[in-house]
Amino acid sequence: MDSSHFAQLTRPGAVKRLLVRGTNWLGDGVLMAPALNALRQGFPHARIVLLAKPSVADLFHCHPAVDEIVLYRNPGIHAGLGGKWRLARSLMAYHFDLAVLFQNAFEAALIAALAGIPQRYGYPTDGRWFLLTHRVTQLPGLRVRHEVEYYLELLRPMGIPITPRAPVLYTNAEEDREAAARLESFGVLPGKPIIGLNPGSTYGTAKRWLPERYAEVVQRVAAEHNAHVIIFGGRGEEALGRAIAGMLTAPHTVLSGRTSVRQLMALIKRCRLFLTNDAGPMHIANALGVRVVAVFGPTNPQTTAPFGTSHELVRHAVDCSPCLLRECPIDHRCMRGIQPEKVYAAAVRQLREAGVSPCPSPIEGERTFGPSALEGEGRVSGSSAPVVFLDRDGTLNWDPGYLNDPAAMRLLSGVGPAVARLNQVGLKAVLVTNQSGVGRGIISLEALGSIHQRLRELLAESGAWLDGIYACLHRPDEGCGCRKPASGLVAQARRELGLGTARSFVIGDRAIDIALARNIGGTAVFVLSGYRPEDEQAHMAAHGLSPDYTAKDLSEAVDWVLKRCHVPASQEKFSLPRRGNAN
Question: Which of 165, 252, 438, 530 has the most CB atoms around its CB within 10 Å?
C-alpha cells in the first residue's frame, strides 16, 4: 500500500471522530503517551476517544490529548465474544471515522471491525492483518527499540511529525490537594522530602529486587536526608510492603494496595526520589518529573527503561539476562548480584540532582550524658543518650516458640507503657533478637518483617517506638558474629544509629542476653517473664553469669534503669512529638 494512502487520513476534515485502542498494561500505557500527543497534533480538530482497560484509562484523565474515555471491562461485561459484540455495538453510536490500534492483539482489530469503523490502522500482528484497512509494516529492528519509539513509529506513515520525547502525565488541583491532606494525616508536612519505594511487580517475582536490600538502602538514604518513606504497591503486595516496613526505623507509611491509579499519581508526584523495580509506577514517576532509580534484572532496559534523562538504572550483567521470564528458574543471579551500595550511590546522586542534600550529622555538639543533664530537662538526645538493648520474645511479647504469624504477636502486660517511658526521657530503645527460624526455613523473611511491623503498631498504641530493630537470621551452627551473645548486632546498631559509646543496658529473659551485656561492657537486667526462667537462672549460675538486676517484667526493669540514670519519677511525664508513623 503506497504512502499516499496513509497520508489521506490526515487530510483536513477527513477524520472527525477517532478511536484509539490503548495498551493493556500500566507501564505500556505511560509509554504510549507521546504517541497520543502526536495524534493530537496530527488530528487537531478531531474528537479523540480512548478505549482502554480501567487502570490504563485512569492515567489519561485530565490529559490534553484525550477528549473522552471508554472503559474496556475485560474481565467484566466485555469478556468473551458476547462481551466484544456488546462493546462494539456501543461504539457504533460514535460513528468513528478511524481507529488507531496501539494494542497489538487480534481482539483490538476485531472490535473495531465489529463496530463498523471504516478505517482501521495498526501493525499487522497476531494474525489480524485481514481486519486492518491500513497495515503498517514494522521496520527492521523496531522491536528492540524503546517502546516510546515503537508506538510513535506506527504514526509515521500518516506524515505526522515524530519527535521522541519523555511521556508526561497530569493530575488536577483537587487530586493534588487530596494528596497533600493525606500526607499531612501521616505526619508529612510540606517541605519534608519524600522517597517513594515500589518494591513489587505485577509481572512476576523475577523483576523484584530483594526486599531486605531495598530496606537497607531506603533506611540509610532516608536517615541521611531526613526524609519520609512511602511504600507503594498494588493489590496482593500488601505483605511485601509490611515486610519492608518492619525492617525500617526511618519514618514511613505503607500504601501497598491502598491507592487508586489517580491517587497513586498524585502521591508519587510529591516524591523527590522514586526507587523501584521495572514496573508501571516507575514510568508514572518518570512521566510526573520525579527522579527515578530503577533496578533492572530480567527485562531489557533498551526497550522498557524510563524514557529521558531524569533517571538512573542499576543492573548486574549476567549471561541469561534479559530473559523476560516472570519467575526465575535458577538462582535469580541478575538481582542477587546487585549490591545495596550501587543502589544507594545512585539514589544519592538522583537526590542531589533533585536539589535534596544530606542533613548535617546530629551527633556533633551533643551533650555528654550525666545525671545533671537528665535532672535538668527530663531527657537527653542523640549519641549522649543511654541505650537500652531489648530482647524480643519473652521480654516484649509472649513467646510461642517460633513466632511466624503477625496475628500471633501479643505484647506482655505493661510493655507498651514501659517502652514509652524510655522514649519520653530520651533513652534509645533498640531491639536485638536472634531469629534462627529464618535460617532454618521455618520463618520467611517477609513474615519476619510483617511481625516486626505488627510489633511497632502495638507499641504505637501506647505512644511507644523502637529506635532500631536488628535481627540475626543465622542458625546457631553457622558461627556468625551477630548471633547473641556475640556483639555483632550491637555494633551494627551503634554504627547505623550513631550511638557511639553511650552507656548501654541489656534487658532480656535469657542467659545469652546477660552474656551479651558482659560482652559489650553494658549493664544486665534479667526479666522473669520468659519461658521457664528458672532454667535460664540455673544456666547462668553454671556459667558464672550474674545479672546486675532481676526484674519481674519489663515494667519493673525500666523502673530500675531509670533510677540508675537518675530520672526522677516526676519527670517521666515529659512529652515528646510522636515518631514517624508506620501506617
Answer: 252
In a shared domain, residues 153 and 225: no
Q: What is the pLDDT of residues 112-157, one digit of tens each?
A: 999 999 999 999 999 999 999 999 999 889 989 999 999 999 999 9
3-state SS record for 354-378: CCCCCCCCCCCCCCCCCHHHHHHHC
Tell me, yes or no, if 391 is annotated catalytic: yes
- Give the CATH number for residue 410: 3.40.50.1000
Query: Residue 393 catalytic?
Result: yes
Query: Any idea what DSSP says for residue 69?
Result: E
> Could you give the CA distance from residue 291 to residue 310 in angstroms, rounded to a whole number?
5
Residues 231 and 308 occupy one common structural domain: yes
Catalytic one of 393, 467, 509, 513? 393
Q: How many domains does the chain have?
A: 3
Same domain, 279 and 348: yes
Cell numbers found for residue 551: 526484674
User: String of b and e for 35-56 (b: at least 16 CB within 10 Å)?
Assistant: bbbbbbebbeebbbbbbbbebb
Region for residue 369 given its phi and psi (left: phi exceeds 0; alpha: psi -120 to 50; beta: otherwise): beta
Neighbouring residues of 535: CB distance < 8 A, sequence distance ≥ 6:
none
Min mean pLDDT across 49-63, 182-196, 466-480, 569-583 is at: 569-583
The catalytic residue among 58, 391, 467, 553 is: 391
Q: Provide the 3-class DSSP secondary structure of residue 405.
A: coil
- For position 325, which CATH number holds? 3.40.50.2000
How far, in Å, CA of 429 to CA of 547, rounded? 19
Does 111 fall in a domain? yes
Determine the Cα–Cα distance for residues 457 and 209; give it in Å rounded to an integer: 26
My answer on whether 343 and 390 are in the same domain is no
Q: Is the pTM of this model over 0.85?
A: no
Of 146, 150, 148, 117, which is closest to residue 134 (Cα–Cα)? 117
Instruction: Please tell me whether residues 260 and 312 are part of one structural domain.
Output: yes
Residue numbers of the domain that contains 276: 175-353
Would 334 be classed as within a structural domain?
yes
Pair 256, 316 in one domain: yes
User: Tens digits of per-residue pLDDT, 200-230?
Assistant: 998 788 999 999 999 999 999 999 999 999 9
